[in-house]
Each structure stands twice: as C-alpha cells, then as structure tokens.
Amino acid sequence: MNIHILMLILVLVAFVLTIWAQFRVKGSFKKWAKVEASAGMTGQEVARRILDRNGLRDVPVEPVRGMLTDHYDPISRTVRLSEPVYNSNSISAVSVAAHECGHAIQHKEAYGALVLRHRMFPVANIASGVAPWLLLAGLFLQMTGLFLIGIVLYAAAVAFQVVTLPVEFNASSRAKNIMIKEGFIRNIEERGVNKVLGAAALTYVASTLYAVLELIRFILLFLSSDE
Questions:
Q1: Cα gap 221→20, rounded to integer Å
Q2: By C-alpha distance, which of 207, 209, 203, 201 is closest to 23?
C-alpha cells in the first residue's frame, strides 16, 4: 500500500477516535452527573476545601458559563468551574473540580511539565493559528519553502499538545488521591471518578495522536515533493 494512502487512513482513524472521545467524555459526565457523591459537597465546596488545605486560600473559585468549560487560569490564578460543576454535588462535579485544583497545585509547586507548557504557550498559540494557512498556501502554490515553514510551526503546536498530556494525567492523579484522602468519595464511588477523569484524558490522547499523525503526513508530503 502506498505510504501516503496508509497515512491518510491512519489520520482518518485518529480523527474518528477524537470525535468518539468527545462523545464519550460528554456521556460519562452526564451519566455520573446524576449520581450524588456521598460527601454531599458541591464542586465549588470541594474546590475551596482542596485549595485551602494546600495553601492556596488566595486562589478564587468562580463559576463560568457553559458545559465542560472548567479550567484553571494560571495568569489570574483562578479556578473556574462550569455551572453544572460549580453548583452540583455529583460524582462528575467533584471529579472535575478536584482535577482543576490539581492544576492550581501544580502551579504552586512549579510542576516541570506545567512550567514548560506555560513557556511554550505563546509560540504554540501563534503557530496553531498560522501553520494551517502556510501549509495550504505552500501546497496549492507549490512553494516548498512556505510549506516547510508551515510544518515547523505545526510541529511547535504538536509539541505543545504532547507536553499537555503529562500535565493532564498528573492533575487527574492528584485529584483522585486528594478526593480519597479527604473523604470526598468512598471506595465504591472510585469507579465513577475513574470513568469521568479517564474519558477526559482520552480526549487529550486522541487529539494528540491525530495531530502527530497529521504532522508525519505533512513531512512525507514535503519529502515526496523533493523527489
């Protein structure tokens, strides 16, 4: 089979996996959003408790509109939780809230992968916006130099995604350990936590795999253009 056809098939498979992962994380969240955590605490209360006990009393917890829009803002040092998480005492809510607090703790401890990710962000942000246009222009105008620049910038964006993986996995690991230690969940509730956090992690893995395969495909296209 032609290497380019094989790569195209792999990219399509990765793309389908990415879409499936997004549906799975939404499905897992909705399923466990219907199950109340035994501690009876809302996402906001869990986040506040975790932050306070880790010396982060100055980090606010704020509600943000939308679903699965939860994030930690390292610039303002703020944990923002979507309304379904902020106000709910479900397994999904406490899992997501604890995960975002995991990022705040990483920030405080200067976790290596997170520090690297923050340093890469400005370049990756610009690269992800410019690279697709340069790749398209280089391909259609048959300008290999322009196409190569696009590949380099796209590689920077992919590197950012790769570095994001350990950051997310570490935050989830911290979240689970903290929830068990603090008694936010019982042993029988760990399955729900694993499902929610595992589905979220899968979306990062799938999107990164897709990006890496795309990068390889672009490199092969560039190499073949010189033949």
A1: 28
A2: 203
- Look at residue 140 and tell me whether its pLDDT is greater than 70: yes
pLDDT tens figures, 42-54: 999 999 999 999 9
Alpha helices (H) in 33-111, listed in sequence order: 43-53, 83-86, 91-109
Q: How many CB atoms lie within 10 A of CB 212?
A: 18
The pLDDT of 139-149, averaged and rounded, is: 90
Catalytic residue check, 109: no
Strands ordered across the beta sheet of 78-82: 61-64, 78-82, 71-73
Range of the domain at 195: 3-225
Mean pLDDT computed over every residue of the chain: 91
Q: Alpha carbon 25 to chain centroid distance?
A: 12
Predicted TM-score (pTM) above 0.90 = no
With beta carbons less than 8 A apart as the criterion, state whether 118 and 65 touch.
no
One of 36, 45, 100, 182 is an active-site residue; which one? 100
**What residues contact 197, with CB distance under 8 A and at least 6 apart?**
95, 99, 172, 175, 176
Reading the block at residue 155, the tokens are: 């590689």
Give the number of domains in the chain. 1
For residues 27-32, give the mean pLDDT: 90
Q: How many Å apart are CA 15 and CA 21, to the nearest integer?
A: 10
Q: Tell me the mean pLDDT in the region 155-167.
A: 96
